[in-house]
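Recall the central idea of this unit: under ordinary conditions, the amino acid sequence of a chain determines the structure it adopts. In this exercise we apply that idea directly, starting from the sequence alone.
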Amino acid sequence: MKKIMKMPKIKFKNFRPKINEECGVFGISNNKDASTLTALGLHALQHRGQEGCGIVSYDGKKYHSEKRFGLVGDNFNKEKVLRNLPGNYAIGHNRYSTTGGTTLRNIQPFFADTNTGGIGVSHNGNLTNAITLRKKLVDEGAIFYTTSDTETIVQLIAKSKRSKTIDKIVDALFQIQGGYALVMLTQNTLIGVRDPFGIRPLVIGKINNSYVFASETCALDIIGAKFIRDVDNGEIVYIENGKLNSIKPFPPKKIRPCVFEYIYFSRPDSILNGECAYEYRKRLGAELAKETKIDADLVVPVPDSGNAAAIGFSKHTGKNFDLGLIRNHYVGRTFIEPAQKIRSLGVKLKLNANKSSIKNKKIVLIDDSLVRGTTSHKIVKMLYDAGAKEVHLGIACPQIKFPDFYGVDMPTKKELLAANKTDDEICKYINAKTLNFLSIKGLYRAIGFENRNISYPQLTDHYFTGEYPVKPIDELGDNKVTQLSLLSTASNN
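Accordingly, the structure predicted from this sequence is:
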């Protein structure tokens, strides 16, 4: 087999207006309720992936696996399902595919038998050399079962000539590039790995004698686990015989976590660098207010992503905060997809104007980010139709001009509004009275850095700057993000 399998064409008929993190990972060791606690952890991480979920457990002799489409609470809420996952060790995964490739075999965790025993892998992120590696492996005789870059990692581990599993993993890690957080399970060993720049998040917790890995601290809270620390960038942490062990095989690099964990991805109650994401987001709104001079009556968030920033904006300016938009939390893709007439309703399925609050008011509308602008355009129109006198749009982050390579569901540069239009042109397209983006300096001040270090940014902020910590090896052309995420993530991560 000389050629790589052709991927299905990618369609954007139901594209998401927001950018989305690709997935959430969880793992626990040495606990008789391992699978139940993993299901709870995944439930807390549901915002990171909603199209599929899976758990792999180990009972000391055998591995067990359950994978399902849909939400954790709809699939792992029955005792008989969890009875199929016995053992004191378990790992889990929530999947957020971009488009295409929605098949059960692409839902993680993945499992494989190697010459040193079985291994299960949950992966959050994207490899920037996935296509190149996959072609090489296929040319050497490897047979791939899925379309995910995670399987490339599994194949590299299985192919390694090293004698110990941990050494096989190190061997594989030296061949991959990108942003990734991995939680892996071998015989009575739980392993957590974070990429050399720490782009994707991974934390360590402990409940009684059980160690836990998770994408965010909110997954520790739900099971009563204590937060210990973050997995360091470039670190491999493995739990063996109840003890935490650490190795750092990579040359040291300064950490550069993804800036969107602070802006949008992480749940508001999760801890990032010692502080709740909610507090960072309020400061983002306050910084936007410092940079903005608007004569307005009311500050209105785009729920729920703009709530904290709008509170920060309101407190700094002294302008009243109100819920001028009401969100319907019970709209799922299964309802939206079937009929074009229903799809055409668009944002009205999820949001509705609170007319009593906004009528005859000058409104500052606050959102966390602006991607394609289609949703903002519809929301502004909705507010005007409901009687708003003026609508000023404030975005609590800088202009998004560049696509992502590290596991984020984001459009190509051609589809990013700020990459193709000036601020004035965007304002006219959205039909707002004024449009203001937070500056890069304001962003860094809100997160805790006085200024962006030009020689070495403290965050992975390529969305705004085009400065990528890991350059892609794969040749991807203009469609780079879609192609990369979907040799791999059509499947996904």
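The mean pLDDT is 88.
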